[in-house]
From TrEMBL:
Stored InterPro entries: Glyco_trans_1, Glyco_trans_4-like_N
Class of this enzyme: transferase
Residues covered by the Glycosyltransferase subfamily 4-like N-terminal domain: 18-119
Enzyme Commission (EC) number: 2.4.1.-
PANTHER family recorded: BLL5217 PROTEIN, GLYCOSYLTRANSFERASE
Keywords of this entry: Glycosyltransferase, Transferase
Pfam families linked to this entry: Glyco_transf_4, Glycos_transf_1
GO molecular function, one term: glycosyltransferase activity
UniProt lineage: Bacteria, Pseudomonadati, Pseudomonadota, Betaproteobacteria, Burkholderiales
Protein name: N-acetyl-alpha-D-glucosaminyl L-malate synthase
Gene3D superfamilies: Glycogen Phosphorylase B
Length: 356
């Protein structure tokens, strides 16, 4: 199958720093190539891939301080894809609603994976205006604010099976928090949970500029009040040891997280996840198998006391059954085939029928 993957230009694919969407695009693209498909990745010029690479902008926008209008490079990206659309069996966008207007009138089938939050009021008229634009959700929970959207399927994220793996020589001895520090991720709640159970907490997280004031004002003072180590942002090579050394990953979110990639990163290392019942959590965490889904701090404290009931080998096995990039790619191929087989007739085909 000839597949175009169209990534955002904010980060490289894969990202050099934090960037969940671009990371997933990379995992998907490489898995599709491995499965034998003819894949072209439209992305920033500093991206790295085994697919054919179409550099839509010289480098990731986040790394270019001269860029003030991020829409302009993306408009150029869309035009490049439009001009080559006829070369592909399917176009797969990761650009939210940007492709809807331009590509709804083309003959080549397209689909958009929605990676972010959808509970914003300004999105309602957009998806009402394009109810036939095919979209994929990354959890069933993500769909709830937009029932009118043209939902094709829910496809969960996946990681390469050998990207992260358990380090059995590492003895778990602390609780872990991984990801990004911001109010809705509630690292303060993670600190409270760790203090309640008397376990050390290691925080491996990025602090964006927009969240720096929150970190300095609300989080930094808490670091000295408990047995907390702030590790900072870590890369892929550091994650296996960090996660394998944790008795559990704490995920006490305070918003409807569409997916939560860190949860399956922990599972890949055999590490249980203790997560609050928000957003995608009940879909991703198999309660009593890969961790515990809880409602509050008291529930998290109780769950930590039951970690011995979980098998770290079974957590890894469940990850392999549900959340590898190979499984993700297979699910997307099925979605592509559905689009191709149910597509409307092309303008050329309609003219041919009329003439005949």
């Amino acid at each position: 199958m000839r597949i175009a993957q169209i990534a955002p230009l904010h980060e490289a694919v894969p990202p050099k720093f934090y960037g969940g969407t671009e990371r997933v695009v990379s995992y998907l693209t490489e898995a599709l190539v491995e499965q034998g498909h003819d894949v072209t990745l439209f992305a920033s010029g500093d991206s790295v891939t085994r697919a054919q690479h179409e550099a839509a902008w010289p480098q990731a926008l986040r790394l270019d301080p001269s860029i003030r209008d991020w829409v302009a490079p993306h408009m150029l990206l869309l035009e490049q894809v439009r001009q080559r659309a006829h070369e592909f069996d399917v176009l797969h966008f990761h650009l939210d609603y940007l492709p809807f207007s331009l590509f709804s009138g083309l003959d080549t089938p397209f689909v958009t994976t929605l990676h972010g939050r959808l509970d914003l009021p300004e999105l309602q008229p957009i998806f009402s205006a394009f109810p036939q634009a095919p979209v994929v959700s990354i959890s069933d929970s993500q769909r709830q604010p937009l029932p009118q959207a043209g939902w094709l399927n829910t496809i969960y994220h996946g990681l390469p099976a050998d990207l992260l793996s358990p380090r059995k020589e590492v003895k778990p001895g602390y609780l872990a928090f991984l990801g990004r520090i911001c109010p809705e991720k509630r690292v303060d709640t993670a600190i409270e949970i760790a203090a309640r159970v008397g376990l050390p907490l290691k925080i491996a997280a990025k602090v964006d500029k927009v969240d720096r004031e929150y970190f300095e004002r609300d989080i930094k003072p808490l670091l000295s009040k408990a047995d907390v180590e702030f590790v900072g942002e870590i890369n892929e090579a550091q994650k296996p040891a960090f996660l394998s050394g944790a008795q559990a990953l704490l995920f006490p979110i305070d918003w409807c997280e569409p997916f939560g990639l860190v949860m399956i990163e922990a599972m890949a290392c055999g590490t249980p996840v203790i997560a609050f019942r928000r957003g995608s959590v009940p879909e991703v965490v198999d309660h009593g198998v890969t961790g515990y889904v809880v409602d509050d701090v008291d529930g998290a404290v109780e769950a930590i006391g039951r970690l011995d009931e979980l098998s770290r080998d079974e957590i890894r096995a469940q990850f392999e059954r549900r959340f590898t990039s190979d499984i993700m790619a297979g699910n997307y191929v099925a979605a592509y085939e559905s689009l191709i087989h149910t597509r409307r007739p092309t303008r050329r085909e309609l003219r041919s029928v009329a003439v005949g």
